[in-house]
Give the backbone structure.
Amino acid sequence: MLPDQFLFAVEVMLNGLMAGVLYALVALGFVLIFKASGIFNYAQGVMALFGALTLVGIMDGQVPFAHLINAIFGTDVHHFGWHVPAFLSILLVMVVMVGLAWCVQHFIFRHLVGQEPIILFMATIGLAYFMEGFGDLMWNSEIKKLDIGIPQGGSMWIEEATTFLGGSNFYGFFIDKLEIVASVVAVVLVIILVAFAQYTKQGRAMRAVADDHQAALSVGISLSFIWVLVWSLAGFVALVAGIMWGAKSGVQFSLSLIALKALPVLMLGGFTSIPGAIVGGLIVGVGEKLFEFLIGAPFLGGATENWFAYMLALLFLVFRPQGLFGEKIIERV
Amino acid sequence: MKRLATVTVAAVMAAAPVMADLVFPSLSYRTGAYAAGGIPFADGYADYMTLLNERDGGIGGVMTRILECETGYNTEKGVECYEATKGEGSLVYQPLSTGITYQLIPKVTADGIPMHTMGYGRTSAANGKVFSNVFNYPANYWNGASLVVNHLLDINGGDIKGKKLSLVYHNSGYGKEPIRTFEELASKHGFELTLLAVDHPGQEQKSQWLQIRRERPDYVTMWGWGVMNAVAIQEAANIKFPMENFIGVWWSGSENAVLPAGDGAHGYKAITFHNVGSDFPVFDDLAKYVLDTGKAAGAGDQIGTAIYNRGFYAAMLAAEAVKTAQKIHGVADITPAMMRDGMEALEITEAVMTDLGMPNFGPSFKVSCENHGGPGTGAVAQWDATNKKWSLISDFAESDMSVIQPLIDADSAAYAAENSMETRCN
């Protein structure tokens, strides 16, 4: 029999890994856009919120802009009265995210080609606030339950199969089924993204643009198309993150703040590496949970996770500014 | 002739002065992370005032006007809203934010405008001897803490010695407010208290709930707001914590907190200082004069929800204070200073509540110069996930003022000393 305290630490570590996967899901979207266009997309968290809001709205047959329509026309419409199956709804939201990517490219970034990175970053801040307001107007601010059939709660199988490891105070490992699903989805997503980048024509074009815009242009790659493609992919990743986080807490406006959880992951894993986002997420997840368990809760009054993640990221920055997997920037003069 | 006409016009104006509106600023938050809580409160507050205008022609013949200003639950914006609206004859502020409340306490006191922080804000503002312009009747956080413990005493035959209670709280001034009261109550009743802080916004609480799963407290209580509530209830359901042993304060007791967890939230409890649901005669009037005429605030779909009822109740108390002020000063068009007097002399009886179509909606109480905090009574509500509704499972009962009053006295005395203030009501 193993000591309970050791088993609890293992349980915390396992849950940290699962939480890290959820952070990595958000960080992936940042990486995709930054890698291809050099834009740090502040709106990534809001895109996750917007994707989840749109998914619930479509599934529940909510009338978009109902409040506005009712105010202008004096009507009282809120729902179409139908429920769309989850799978079909996800496909429809993917179409919406492509539309959003096109709009972002066509109305904002096409006009900012050649601008300083800070200008592009500012544009994404504007985009984030616009989308938050737009999402509110379109689907309203209520908390919505998101149920696409993902199981939730501790896995009884794991719990019962591991109870024998400890004494009477150990009840088996708690692993949330939702987080197991999220981990599987994240792995599949990364495989698809890597395969897409390696083995498809558009993927190779995307990598070419990421390496050198001018060279990519000179061989006939359309920058505009690639950026729409990248923003669409980031939109899909945001939708997946929105679904996973939305299933945990309901779809509500603080969902956009999950972006804050992705920043230390990016600082750690690097802004340009898809595997870096995953590894960074896992390190942050495990690090913050173990710190809270071993030091935060017993000695510091708890609630250390937010600042500890950033402290960990800062430490990495000091020794490896480009992050674990980021590309080292060498500027020759 | 010209002079005669001028005199006539002046006489007419003097005889029939143009009535200004009774202005009620609403520092609302319909956007941002906490909008799901801000919207129903603002809607309830506005709808009650609209009902008075449409049904009664205002209060004492003067129409009411809601002056809404969006704070986004942001303290700086809240202060800006106050500064932008105070010159409009604003009668009473209800900021619905403890952070904004703390910033506004010195400002409203200097400006002579009353502020009502019902169930939130600075708890020791209940001491009217120190806080002349701040009112937090009918209950405050410390009453809430005591009501949680009283409920535990009720269901344990009056003995909770050796029981374990965990407080899961929002790691902010609001969330930390009840800790001292719980500590006092733990020492009085001999239960063991564990504190579990959750950082804003509370989207990720795995560490706290793993700790609860390890330590197996008998009961968990929560001081949460926004998404923190929903996540905590979901996590409690995930670890199969018995929901009937999970009791939130009133800000953790709304539909927004329980609906995302679905059936898992069944049996969850919350303390409340007002009644729940829409089964009151006043809501028939509301349907007739406000809803059916398309004058409802917002989407008009929040009626009867916990926080809508709170906003509605807050507006009712404000309106009754206006009536009291009108009686005291003999004028219909009152000033903020008169409103303060009305609030300090407010008396709510069950007969008044019944007349208003709100029988047993809230407690009977009388405000005084010394006591701005009201009776500190509350009841326990329980969530029925099947029918998606809250029901009261206890009567409105008193909190333990023998513990709370010394804390109020000590905290308000410290505030008075820090600010070199003379006490009132002597």
Q: What stands out?
A: The mean pLDDT of chain A is 89. Chain A touches chain B through 50 residues (CB under 8 Å).
